[in-house]
Amino acid sequence: MNNNNEKSKTGKIEKEILNKHELDSIITRITFQILEKCSNFENIALIGIKRRGAILADRINDKIKEHSGKKAPVGYLDITLYRDDLTEIADYPLLSGTEIDFRVKGKNIILIDDVIFTGRTVRSALDAIIDFGRPEKIILACLIDRGHRELPIQADFTGKYVPTSLDEKINVKLKELDKVDSVSIEKNEDGV
User: Fold this and answer.
1) N or C: which end of the chain has fewer CB within 10 A?
2) pTM, entire model
3) 108-135: string of b/e by CB count within 10 Å (b at 16+)?
């Protein structure tokens, strides 16, 4: 086994695909893409999908300030009650709360998530945002696109496209939650 592969306690193989520096470079690139696309900076707001999308929204906003001298309003979205599989995930799903303390109506919203997969999380987020008002536009930024879309949803800004099989999982680890910045791909040792 090479250095990038690590066997987890559950018998799965994890291979790091992005280290701390690569992750930071991708966040910087997404930030510059947002700054290029959003010429009217006064009208944008960032909304991160909890949990890791919310952390990424804060990091992108810090980089926006670093490179433009301005900060955008940031909101955090819990999409749990908007999921189309709510009755399948748990009898009593845990809610982490939505925090949007700015007016959504008429804003250019940058919706941020860590991984886009089937598109269902993003669809849920769109429904939740619309309940706050009708934005001028919603732009989607995702750190990782792993394919396998079930809905016609594409990110406007993607950090890295990582083709996966359905039995693989992308693990985004951020220091604020996981004490390390890393992205890895996980699969069972036997390929199942």
Assistant:
1) C
2) 0.90
3) bbbbbbbbbbebbbbbbbbebbeebeeb
